[in-house]
Each structure stands twice: as C-alpha cells, then as structure tokens.
C-alpha cells in the first residue's frame, strides 16, 4: 500500500471551498488554482477530487458521521443512483431550452390560428353567413 499525500480532511475542505467559491464567484475561472494554492495541494489532484465529487462517485458529505467520506457511495438496495455531472446538467439545460423555444413558437402559432377562427366565427354569426370570410388568408408555417 502507498502513503496518501493529502489527508482526507484536506481533501474534503478543499472540495468544499471550491464548491462554495463557485457559488459565490461563478465568473471566476481561477478558483481551482487559487484554492489549490490556499490548501497547498496540487491543482490536478484538486481537479480529480472535484470530478469525483461532480459525478457522485465519492461521498464528500459523509452525512452519517461514519467513515471519512472518501469511500465510494453504495446506493440503496435495488436502486442505482446516478448523480449527473455538471456537463450532463448543462447539456440537459440546453436541450430543455431548445424544446421550450419550439413549444413557445407552437403556442404563438396556435394563438394566431385561434384568433383567425374566432374572427371567422364572429363574421359568420353576425352576418348570418355560414362560410369562412374570403378576406382572411391562411399563411402556411415555413
């Protein structure tokens, strides 16, 4: 077995500090380097710990108070847990934004159609004519 270069406490505190600073300073792109210097750890080691934190493969919280929090998580029996990485979450947000844009456009189109039909119904019921208004034209969606 090999000796660990950094203690579990240093790892936990460094990861927590990066997570905290990312919340406080989302525009700061040098947080990892700065925290690595603060805790006197290698930036690449800190990035590796953050990757494990982001993908959920290690439990840094250790909420039950047992263990050091650096052991792999064990999901409840019969259920596999997957904590999405930041990259997966951003991809999902992009996908949902695209779907939302399509739905908003569909909603605008349906609103126009309902308006046209309401106008035709109003003309037909007020003039006693049961045919659509010839001045109303349908513009096909491109």
Please give a structural write-up:
This protein is mainly α. The protein has helices at 8-24, 31-39, 43-55, 86-127. α1 packs antiparallel against α2. The longest helix is centred in the C-terminal third of the chain and has 42 residues, at 86-127.
Unreliable segments (pLDDT under 50, ≥5 consecutive)?
61-69
The rounded distance between the terminal residues' Cα atoms is 66 Å
Please give the radius of gyration in angstroms: 29 Å
What is the β-strand count? Answer: 0
| N-to-C series of helices and strands | HHHH
Shape: rod-shaped
Number of helices in the DSSP assignment:
4
Proportion in β-strands: under 5%
Helix content: 55-70%
- Describe the main β-sheet briefly: none
Mean pLDDT reading? 79
The chain-level structural class is mainly alpha
What is the secondary structure topology, with strand pairs?
Blueprint: H1 8-24, H2 31-39, H3 43-55, H4 86-127
Helix pairs in contact: 1-2, 1-3
Features:
rod-shaped, 4 helices, single chain, 142 residues, mainly alpha
Q: Could you provide a short overview of the structure?
A:
By secondary structure, the chain is an all-alpha fold.
